[in-house]
Design a protein that fits this description.
By secondary structure, this protein is an alpha/beta fold. The chain folds into three domains: about 90 residues, Cytochrome c-like domain (Cytochrome Bc1 Complex, Chain D, domain 2, Orthogonal Bundle); about 80 residues, Cytochrome c-like domain (Cytochrome Bc1 Complex, Chain D, domain 2); about 140 residues, Rhodanese-like domain (Oxidized Rhodanese, domain 1), CATH 3.40.250.10. Helices cover about 40% and strands about 5% of the residues. It is built from 18 helices and nine strands.
């Protein structure tokens, strides 16, 4: 048994709801506020002209290809930073100075200035990309390490490049975001497009290789996780129950959840995001249960013995709160929502796993047919 993943929603769920921005279009960008915030928080490293590399190898923000998939990926970068680089998180919920609304306003201002038009998206922006990981590793060493570093650290012998060995970047950047950068480059920077040098298959292979690095550049076991069967969704079934102290009677912190997973406590972990994001990266052992899916099979499989159930999403809590609310209505009292959300989890440096997005879409197609 598997949860139901309608293909059209896999592609366009939470991600395109933000990108197509029917809601955002109703809220005009506050240009003056965005400009002030940029000067206060961004100009030091990205430069007054936003062309980057003023300090700490901060990338250019004016390249059109950066915004080709809309403002969401750069917005998440502002929210949760880039672990291991000077780019820290700016969202107030993880210790930063800006609210979610202020960050969205800043990202939309940057996107529009970079040429993005609200509502314009490539077709199927979340299509998974398959490639030869071993070939991608070789091609990375030959073509990318000179600027991005042999281990994706962001600076190589040929100059500064974006730090690619970054959990939050890989956990929040769809395959096509990476492919666009490799294919077309970043205008007016050292990052030139490779569409004339590498074949489409070779570019796809570099993307596939980079995707595996979401588990850590030197992780020993580079594997893609398969979706847990609903008959086996309890993590550590012989473990002790976690001793969670919930914020406001609902929220568990990333620190406490990580401690419980490290201690191999018994629990169920539910990922309520669009399944594609589960495929990009997820907390190991979690079951993809998108916020919009049919839940009859899931509810029938939930343990009725008081086992803790923890749900998380990206945004950082709305979808998880919706599912947990339903569970509590049905009598599942030992339930909690991850306070920081998945991107916050990644930004704090906690471990993650990469899933098989292509397999998820294949399963969706089979269910439709």
């Amino acid at each position: 048994m598997q949860p139901v993943f309608p293909r059209i929603l896999v592609y366009f769920g939470l991600y395109s709801a933000f990108l197509c921005s029917d809601v955002a279009a109703q809220v005009p960008v506050d240009v003056d506020q965005a400009a002030r915030d940029y000067q206060q928080y961004c100009a030091l490293c990205h430069g007054d002209d936003r062309r980057g590399y003023a300090n700490d190898s901060a990338p250019s923000l004016v390249s059109e290809t950066l915004w080709e998939l809309g403002p969401m990926v750069p917005s998440l970068a502002i929210m949760y930073g880039r672990v291991g680089t000077p780019m820290g998180p700016y969202l107030d919920e993880v210790g930063g100075p800006l609210s979610l609304g202020e960050i969205n306003n800043l990202a939309m201002w940057l996107a529009e200035d970079g040429g993005y038009v609200q509502g314009e998206l490539p077709q199927n922006p979340l299509t998974p990309i398959a490639g030869d990981i071993d070939l991608g590793s070789t091609l990375y060493e030959e073509n990318c390490s000179g600027c991005h570093g042999g281990e994706g650290q962001g600076r190589g012998p040929d100059g500064p490049g974006t730090a690619l060995a970054n959990a939050t970047m890989l956990a929040t950047s769809p395959d096509n975001f990476l492919k666009i950068a490799i294919t077309k480059g970043r205008g007016d920077t050292l990052m030139q497009g490779f569409e004339a040098k590498l074949s489409d298959h070779e570019i796809n292979s570099v993307v596939a290789f980079l995707r595996t690095r979401a588990q850590g550049w030197r992780a020993e076991d580079m594997h893609t996780a398969t979706v847990p069967d609903l008959d086996n969704i309890i993590l550590n079934p012989n473990g002790q129950a976690p001793d969670f102290e919930l914020k406001d009677g609902l929220y568990v912190s990333a620190t406490d959840l990580n401690d419980a997973l490290t201690a191999k406590n018994k629990m169920v972990l539910l990922d309520t995001r669009v399944p594609y994001f589960w495929g990009m990266a997820h907390i190991e052992g979690s079951l993809p249960v998108p916020y919009y899916s049919s839940r009859e099979e899931l509810m029938a499989a939930m343990p009725g013995d008081g086992t803790w159930i923890v749900a998380y999403c990206e945004c950082p809590r709305a979808a998880a709160e919706s599912l947990v609310s339903k569970l509590r209505e049905l009598g599942f009292s030992n339930t909690a929502v991850l306070w920081e959300g998945y991107a916050g989890w990644a930004a704090l440096g906690y471990p993650m796993s990469v899933g098989d997005s292509a397999a998820l879409l294949q399963a969706a197609d089979e269910k439709e047919n």
